[in-house]
Each structure stands twice: as structure tokens, then as C-alpha cells.
Amino acid sequence: MKKKFNLIALLLISITGFSQNVVENFNYGTNYDTLSRSTIGGANWKRHSGGGTSTNNLMYNTSSLTYTGYSSSNVGGSAEIWGTLRSEDVNRDLTTAFTSGSVYASFLLKVDSVAAASTVGDYFMHYCDTSTVTGANTLSNFRGRIFIRAGSTANTYQIGLNKGGAGATAVFTTTNYAYTSTLLIVLKYTFDLSSTSNDSVFAHIFTSGIPSTEPSTPTLAATDVTSVSDFVRLRSICLRQGSAATYKARVDGIRVSNSWATSALPVKLTSFKAEIINKQTNLNWTTASETNNKGFEVQKSVDGVNFETVGFVKGVGNSNKIVNYNFVDNNNLSAFYRLNQIDFDGMSELSKVVSVKNNEELILQITPNPFANSIEVVTNKNIVSAEIIDITGKTKVLEVINGTNATIDTHNLSNGVYFIRVNNGETIITKRIIKN
């Protein structure tokens, strides 16, 4: 279902019968604050344990994590997870509860440090069967716990997994991962409805790339499967700062779905360009593959901040070949453009922003400013008219001009603030001027 403009293959894309449940990019602006506070992430994340002070809360970080090919790479901010050093634990509701099949939660992890004494480790993320609530000690039934512990060599760490028991039952990687590198982890929970204690938990861990199909052998498989009861439902995703290991890490780009979508590739946007040709802006972009792609909204902005949709280009739906797209905007002025790629199920993703600049735009120079009895108007294009307007909007002086410069008599104007508006037949430009 959900896919983005990135490289390689995207995890957690939906085909018919599958759906993206939650996408959490921690895109909360520029404030550095606790994740559970309402003005930051609190609309999504609720505290269920610990925290409550500025030194114990789970903090929001304005910097995002980057992983090539992952659609939630380098978007928004991230969440700091500091084991032992902080105590707040938070949870986020899924859009709908899962009661069967498999659930995949992919996320990015960057570990900055782990205390050498933290050899048993502690878990920092897990699923829960309870709906989101606010308050202390309100969640308890945790499954699919992901651990961090010190590695076997200096400046490294290992990842662990269990279904839901104590830390000692977790199985850990033999691989040591280097500090400050970013991992992509996929936490998988699979329901087995034939029993009440046979559900499985797996973890796939990647240091680079994303396979287009789910690997047949996971990096980790929980070994405490039959010793822990199964979920009746899987309802939320949780972030935890425990006390059994001391570490500093960040989590970003959490995506929860019920499918790896084994044959699906993302919408892979390989190029997006804009240029002015024959007084029109030509937009051209290319995809190398598409899945479930309804099409592209073309959005335009004059300031790079506020965008409006100026057109729509239909996508091919599904493709594993190169597809070229084009859109012409009847505009020859400087502007910013972006694409909003839309899936058939309504999910969407914005592309990067590209810009065009028309070096032949009308350039206006007014001298002197402030002025007294006259002003000199100089432009790079022939002027059709020039008018001086007071702050009430009334036109005080209007000149019909044919040329690139003119002198306008202003001796009858009172002292004050005015605006000069110049028209070259294609463009109108306004500047603020002052008479002393």
C-alpha cells in the first residue's frame, strides 16, 4: 500500500488486502521537548510509566535518521531512548487492532553508546495488547521486545529479542554493531490461532539495503514462544527506557503494517527536474518502478512554503520499468514545485522540492529612495505603465511609459510612505518608497 520516493525496495507496502496502519516519522517541528507533551507528540504518544520530570521524560530530537532506500528516512525528527538515564515509557495506538496474520513494525535505530557493564541488556521497544491510555503503570502485557546490550568488543552493541519474558530469555545477535551507524529493524509478530501459546516473534536487522522479499531466515527468532501466552489482539506500539542497561540511542521512522508485500516495489523516483522553456515551466520526472500508484499531484509555490495544486498526472499503477512523466505549467516566473504521489488507497507522499528561476523577470530599480521631487524608474524590460499609490490605496501619480527607464515628477506628493507599481505587460511588480 504505502510507498515513497526512495531507492531500492520499500518495506511494508500493501497490495490488495493489506494496509499501512501507522507511520511515525516524529515530524513535530523544531521544538526539543518531551515526546508525550501535547504540543509535541502527545496527540499520538501517551505516557504509561515513569517520567514526569524534565530529566526523566522520553525526549523528542529534531534530527532525523537516514537509511538509504527506506521511505521514512530523513523525515522529521526522532525519539531519544536513554536506558537507565531516563525512565518515561510511552505508547501509541495503532489505527486498528490486529488479531490474526502477521504484523510488521519497521524502524530505524542509531545507538550512540552502551555502558560496558550492560551485558544482560534491556528492551526499548515492544508491542502491547492495550489501547492507548495516559497514566502510570497502566500497560503490562508486552510482546515482541527488542533489546540493546553491550557488544563483545569496544564501541559496539548487540540487538536482542524475546516474545515477552524477562531479559535473561532474550536471544541476541552474535554480530556487533558499531556505534552511530543506523540500522533498519523489522519486528514481526505472527498469530497462531491453533493455540494460546504458539505465536511467533522475529526480527530482521539490516545495515544497508532492503530486500524486496522477506528473507526466509530472520536475524533473530524468539525462543521463549511457548512459555509466554499469546496476544488476543495487538493494539499499540511502545517505546521504553528501562533500568537494566545504560545506553543512549534514537529511534525514527516507525512503520506498522500487516504485510512485507513480498512482490511489491516502491514508487522509485529517479529524477525530478523543472526548467523554463518558451515562457512555460516544464516539469519532468522518471520512475524506475511503481506499485499501487494512482498518480501525482503537481504542487506549486511562489515562496517555497505555501503550495497549491496546479495539476494532476495519472500514474501507471504498477510497473517495474522506467516511466517518464511530463507536466507543463503556463508560467515563466520563478517558482517552487513538488510532487504529491498518491496511492489508490489514498495514502500519499511528497517528493523533494525543485525550483526554477527566470533570469529575464522584470527587475525594478527606484532612485533615489527616499525621494523628494522626482524619482528615476529603471527596469530591464519595457514599461507599459507606472503608478504611485498612497497607503490608503489611492493612485496619486500614473505615468504611461514606453521604455526601460523614466523620470516621474513627485513634487506634488506630501511626505510619507507610498508604493510604486510597475507593469511591463506581462508582470506587475510593486516596491515601497518614501518621500521626505
Task: Walk me through this protein's architecture.
- The protein contains no helices and 29 strands.
- It is mainly beta and 436 residues long.
- The protein has three domains: 238 residues, Jelly Rolls, CATH 2.60.120; 88 residues, Immunoglobulin-like (Sandwich); 72 residues, Immunoglobulin-like.
- The strands form five sheets. Strands 1, 3, 4, 6, 12, 13, 14 and 16 form an eight-stranded antiparallel β-sheet that branches.
- Strand 9 and strand 10 form a beta hairpin.
- It is elongated and about 90 Å long.
What's this entry about, in short?
By secondary structure, this protein is mainly beta. The protein has strands at about 20-25, 45-50, 60, 80-85, 90-100, 100-115, 120-130, 140-150, 155-160, 170, 175-180, 180-190, 200-205, 220, 235-240, 245-255, 270-275, 280-285, 290-300, 310-320, 325-330, 335-345, 350, 355, 365, 375-390, 395-410, 415-425, 430-435. About 0% of the residues lie in helices and about 50% in strands.
Low-confidence stretches: 1-19
What is the makeup of the main sheet? 8 strands, antiparallel
> Which CATH first-tier class of the largest domain would you pick?
Mainly Beta
Q: Number of helical runs? A: 0
Task: Tell me roughly what share of residues is in helical segments.
Answer: under 10%
Tell me the structural class.
Answer: mainly beta
Proportion in β-strands: over 45%
Named at the architecture level, the CATH assignment of the largest domain is Sandwich
Distance between the termini: 64 Å
Structural Rg? 29 Å
What's the overall average pLDDT, rounded?
84
Number of domains: 3
Q: Kindly identify the CATH topology of the largest domain.
A: Jelly Rolls
